[in-house]
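G., before I forget:
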Amino acid sequence: MKEDILTKGTNAIWKFFSSVTLTVIILILFVLVSIPGTIIEQGSTEKNLQLLIKVVGEEFAPKALKIIISLGFLDAYHSWWFIILLLLLTFNLTICTIDRFPTTWKIVKTPMGPLDDSFLINMPIRAEIKVKGNLEKAKELVSKALKGHGYNLSEKRIDKTLHLYSQKGKHSRLGVYVVHTSIILVLTGAVIGALFGFKGFLNLPEGEAYSAVIMKTGLLTQDEENERDRLLNTIESVSGDIVKTSQVLGIEPATLQSKLKRYGIRPLGFSIRCDDFEVDFYGNSDMPKEYKSWLTVMKDGKEVLRKSIEVNNPLTYKGITFYQSSYGLMPNLRNAKFVLNIKSNSGVSETKYFNFGDKFAIPGTGIEGIISDFSPALSIDENGRVFTYAETMNNPAVLIEFKEKGKYKYSGWILKRYPTTWQLPEGHTVEFKDLWGAQYTGLQVGKDPGLWLVYIGFALMSVGFIFTFFRSHKKIWARLKEERGEVIITLAATVNKNRIAFEREFERRVKSIKGG
Amino acid sequence: MTSSIFFSLSELAYMMAMVAYITYLVLKRKGIGIAATGITIFGFSAQTLAIIQRWIDSYSIKIVYEVDLFSKLLHSAPFSNLYESLILFVWTMILFYLIIEFRYKNRSFGAFVTPIAGLALLFTNLTGMSKEIQPLMPALQSNWLIAHVILSFIAYGTFALSFSTAIMYLIITTEKRDEGFYIFWTLSVGLFLIVLIAMALDFMTFRIAFSTPESFIKSYLFRATFLNQSKGIAAFSYIVASGILFVLWRFGYLIKKELLSFSISTEVLDDITYKSISIGFPIFGLGGIIFGGVWASQAWGTYWSWDPKETWSLITWLVYAIYLHARFMKGWRGKKVVVLAAIGFFTVIFTYLGVNLLLSGLHAYGEL
Ligand code: HEM
């Protein structure tokens, strides 16, 4: 008696979780709860407070914000209600698959047989054709009409009637399971990524090597920020060695770990150096065509990998990937080096690195240049005055003053992007190749151990879609009966989807049998 | 550039086709129907030529790194900005429409499809979207991204078609004025007409080229009507709009009679709706969701970051998933399911325009 109730209960729960109705309800809920997160700006307390002040007034805004935060709306896609819904969906999908798969599998595996007369007469897609001649000839007609279209006919003789039958696309019935499994894979991959992966960023100046990245944290106070910077500096000073860091700071490794976590610092276990960074523009415009960083990975002081990366073409080392995402000019250009190629009119040429204010000589002449000004993006206004129009190296230019025997000769701006400005009156050229060490490359850094599962899920889903939507399971039966010099062919068919199109195909087959 | 002449021709043709199809629906003269189809085919051919021409132009203009022909062709595909993608959307929709017209030998759908084309093209003209061939920013130079954009718009085209047939389905299955589904379709069609008319009026009033669609929306959209400086004109616009809605609601059932005389069955409409979605859904899943994810993963290191645009794409896709599953639910036949297809297209429009225009506006508002 008790067991009865138990099984009844389990059955009811099973039925509940294997129903498509539940799927539709969950999906509708999923859509509805996804919307607030697109309207409320995620993670930003300050902006939302400003907005709330405008909507509900100064007085209630902080309270309203508190409610919104406590319900998880500022991090909607990681809130408990969102995760519960995702779990429910996964559960529903899994149970549904276990519940239905055996039936489908049976349909796919069961060999096809001839159809009983009683069934044949009740098939919704059906036709009757009378042809002259004997069974053999009629069979040929039917095969001719069907074979070319992918139907491999089986035949069976029962008494005096001949049954021909064939099916195609039976595996398309499995497509739905492939799609559903792929969704479970993608979700599993996402969970693995969220649990065991990380995402951070790194602004890496040209010529420097870093060994830790910074991840998003909650708001930090000024003191905390100072401590974070101190930690970071210590880590970098010992090339990311955690044991040494804790020794230098005089704290327990465990304390250090928890601090690193709190401040979103993630030691990489190796160092990464930016050897150079370049932006290419379209022609002489300010529209960037490509950003490129030349990176070197170093472990224990040794170079282990060198690669240049671009947007859409990252570098991966030990599962950690570096993506080119932005760039910028360093606030302080004291350590930057001007790279100049100096060529005299007699053809002697040399490339050298200079600091701001350095002097250089044009080989074989008495002419001397002094680097006296720099602009990352030089332009000229309508009065002919030069000015800097951007904070990035869109059009870098260096002002060089030339002297001969200690006496001022001329001066001029030399622009990296305009070769005509490299020419000096005497036929010498001074090419401004780069200001090296002035820019930093902005890298997104991430590790996602679930990515391969997500990608397998993506691939499976694509395959599943083809089977689900562009194939259908078609079955055709033909019963051939000889009667007084005529053969009556009864054709019947079923299809699991796309019925209207299939009916049209069926008509065509019937016509081609009739036409001979 | 010669392509712009062909674009203008196709635009003109689609507008004329819209008038012809609607006239055909009312007068039921076979000649008008044939003319409507002819004009549409003409417009479609002109548009195809224009796209090919533009592709060739941008192939020679765009400076691309790619060495292999495939990437080169893909990178110069003329579907990289808002203007070009709307053209692709219209092109796909008309292509599928023509296939259906021939397959089902019925012209009545035309009156429901061509207005969507008209609205989209008016929008491109009105907003003065940049029609220049532009070079691509670094992040956009990815085969995945370009395939993503192209496939998404192809899917949008099929969704637009399913919207038309879903609305037709609702029209011929409802007649009581207090029925939810009746109110739904009269409101949908009414709002659609109102936006079309209001934008046409904007177009006639301000024939200027604007810098960006955003600035157009902020400063010009509906300025000739609802947002007119003159309070009187604005009030009048609202009255007229309400009038349109009322008339549609009051006399909408008459359209049913017109449609029924074309002997279209609910099964055929349901079939076309399902078929369009069963083409659009996987294409959008593959192109819109998966390719977008692969691109984001390669460019930014995260395949999914829940930004509003991504989330709304997912919502769109899931609404169509709901539609597909609802068909398997007991007791959920007919109108209840079909209405989901119509709602799906509203989410498409919102994903495409609303997210950029409304949500980013809202976020900017918080910054003020
Ligand atoms: C994001 C989630 C899901 C997606 C994208 C999805 C996708 C699909 C697709 C594409 C189809 C084929 C529809 C058609 O042939 O018209 C389908 C069918 C189906 N789905 Fe899902 N599905 C999801 C979740 C679920 C869940 C949670 C269940 C659990 C009950 C479920 C149960 C079914 C069933 C029973 C069918 C019909 C299979 C048949 O008899 O042909 N789906 N789904």
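Chain B touches chain A through 54 residues (CB under 8 Å). DSSP finds 13 helices and no strands in chain B.

More on Monday.
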